[in-house]
């Protein structure tokens, strides 16, 4: 058991040494729990704004005496925590694992590759980076002999865990995904309108420390696309060509609706991902919704398995063939310690990219004019749509993770996918080069078995 192993490391004075890069909400939640976990030493917290890092530690209950270290060595020697604005200064021994929580895909790629070069495991909270080039990062980590893992507590890792459970038990995966609050008009939401949809005023959101761009990404469908790309690539599942449909669906309806259309469901085929809405299309709230949770639907392929479904009270479709397992909530950074412990103690990821099946492309939120500069995830100009990677590459679509700062060569209609040929962009970053290398290597493609 991992908890016992952590206790043993604490008793031996050999805790897992953690460097945290990025001090936002997710990181603060992890810090709150890490100080309560034996055998874990957060020896460094890095943020471009050092005061933000201090504020996060204070909010998480850190004692001021723990923050007196002047460098990494002093922090390790004294059981303290060093605060710095230089990520490179914490990416090396004696750090065992780095948590990348910046949310910036370009920066996240740089940090992950630097960790691999130094033999440091990576817990990738930055799912934006994983959706952009996760298959490349996973292969690079494997070559370096370290673990690259999705972040437990975030929905993609929890979904991957459910998929793994179903496959290990011998079930056919039909669909995997999560819930959210969705209506079609949310795709046009901007940081100026987002609080209206949440039923808050801008002043109330500001008092709560809520970031309008981040929350808008959750609302406008972008974050759902990013997370489902991570799931599809980690679990070798195939997104539908039409992208996410966000069907209204309660937990009781999972086996009935999330099965192939040929069997009376909503899916084009088995072996896919989908996000379900907690609202009907007229805005009414569903009973038994899964807004905060994750699920997997699976099939029993024999009369005996289906009989067992009935005997043990599983909710199924009318024929008794399809069932579902779901988790109604997720706890974000409060659960992140599972990924940290699994990487170091078991040398095992809880979800990691295995193929390049899914991509997230930039779609115009409104009519855009030539010369306009795109602002990226959660902003005013584009939202992210999930697509099969093969379709994205075939059409030359602009990955959402590479669009920030790109200047349009031509006008783009509302709802149109932005193509790479449509923009002038700074392509010198390592993330651009890595993305190009991944696209050019057919070895990242997967022939999906739908099992």
The outline comes out as globular
Main sheet summary: 6 strands, parallel
**CATH level-4 homologous superfamily of the largest domain:** NAD(P)-binding Rossmann-like Domain
**Structure summary, number of beta strands:** 14
Q: Kindly, what is the distance between the CA atoms of the first and last residues, rounded to a whole number of angstroms?
A: 29 Å
- Compute the average pLDDT: 95
Strand percentage lies at 15-25%
Question: In CATH, what is the class of the largest domain?
Answer: Alpha Beta
CATH architecture of the largest domain: 3-Layer(aba) Sandwich
Uncertain stretches of 5 or more adjacent residues = 447-451
Helical proportion? 25-40%
How many structurally independent domains?
3
Q: Give the helix tally.
A: 16
CATH topology of the largest domain: Rossmann fold
C-alpha Rg (nearest Å):
22 Å
Q: Strand order within the widest sheet?
A: 3-2-1-4-5-6
Description:
This protein is an alpha/beta fold and 451 residues long. It folds into three domains: 166 residues, NAD(P)-binding Rossmann-like Domain (Rossmann fold, 3-Layer(aba) Sandwich); 136 residues, no CATH class; 82 residues, Antifreeze-like/N-acetylneuraminic acid synthase C-terminal domain (Type Iii Antifreeze Protein Isoform Hplc 12). 35% of the residues lie in helices and 16% in strands. The protein has 16 helices and 14 strands. The strands form four sheets. Strands 3-2-1-4-5-6 form a six-stranded parallel sheet, with helices on both faces. Strands 8-7-9-10 form a four-stranded mixed sheet. Helix 6 links the parallel strand 5 and strand 6. Helix 5 packs parallel to helix 6 and helix 6 packs parallel to helix 11. The chain starts with a helix and ends in an 11-residue tail after the last helix.
